[in-house]
Amino acid sequence: MSSLPYAPLFRSGHVPARAGAGLPPVTCAVVAVSSGDGLSELFGQLGVQGVVTGGQTLNPSTAELLAAVEAVNAQQVVVLPNNKNIIPVAQQLDALTSKTVVVVPTRSMPEALAALVVYDPEADASANGEEMADAAESVATGEVTQAVRSTNTDVGPVQEGDWMGIVRGDGIVAVAPTLDGAVAALLEHLVGSSAEIVTVVEGADATPLSSAAIHSWLAEHRADVQVEVHRGGQPLYPYLFGVE
């Protein structure tokens, strides 16, 4: 999202940090930043031992991330920042603890989900870091959010209240007056003919009708893809998408 203008286009939020502890010892644990309760639960199911919750702009502090690293039951830790603004904060951790910390520079929640599929708790942090980074990098990610001010973009003017489709690396690729319109335009840009898996992470503001519209669009335009849906509960972004 580096192509966005400096003044914020979207609302921001923050939830206090927390970390998991008391789990069985492993060679390498994972600490992940999560933007929703559903995502936090899903991360736990995928083996994450420590979760730090934070929003889009009010990101967790180094101290919060460090507390999570210290709390997990492992001497080697992989950290998934899941936001480009948190990556440099996470990269400070290795110098602040006696544990070995490897940062996988994930920039979105779908990237984290892909990375966790290849996580091996009995492998060391270096090996996990390489495998998880490769998995995360293979995912194209997109999201929809609502503009809180008017501006101009590469795809045309944005009015306050419009919905925007944003793709990692490409910036704003779609603008529409409705959520469903922005989602359809985003999917058209994001889900190419070679796509095999589409992961949909439903946010706090996702609706049954919009979710049904997503399934209908994929069934009509990309009928051969496998669709995975997770209830993430993240604010600000009704839908996050990962495409492999």
What do we call the CATH topology of the largest domain?
Rossmann fold
Question: Helix amount, in percent?
Answer: 25-40%
Based on helices, strands and strand pairing, what is the structural class? alpha/beta
The amount of beta strand, in percent, is 25-35%
Number of domains: 2
Helix and strand pattern: EHEHEHEHHEEEEEHEHEE
Return the average pLDDT rounded to an integer: 91
Strand tally is 12
Describe this structure in words.
The chain has 244 residues and is an alpha/beta fold. The chain has two domains: 28-137, Rossmann fold; 140-243, Hypothetical Protein Tm841, Chain: A,domain 3. Helices cover 29% and strands 25% of the residues. The chain contains seven helices and twelve strands. A six-stranded mixed sheet has the order 9-8-5-12-10-11, with helices on both faces. Helix 3 links the parallel strand 3 and strand 4. The two termini are 20 Å apart.
Short recap of the structure:
The protein has seven helices and twelve strands. By secondary structure, it is α/β, with parallel strands linked by helices.
Element layout with pairings:
Elements lengths: L27 E7 L2 H9 L4 E4 L8 H10 L4 E5 L6 H4 L9 E4 L5 H9 L7 H13 L2 E7 L4 E3 L2 E3 L4 E5 L3 E6 L2 H12 L6 E6 L5 H14 L4 E6 L7 E5 L1
Parallel strand pairs: 1-2, 1-3, 3-4, 10-11
Antiparallel strand pairs: 5-8, 5-12, 6-7, 8-9, 10-12
Which key phrases capture this entry?
244 residues; alpha/beta; Rossmann fold; Hypothetical Protein Tm841, Chain: A,domain 3; 2 domains; 6-stranded mixed sheet; 4-stranded parallel sheet; 29% helix; globular; disordered N terminus
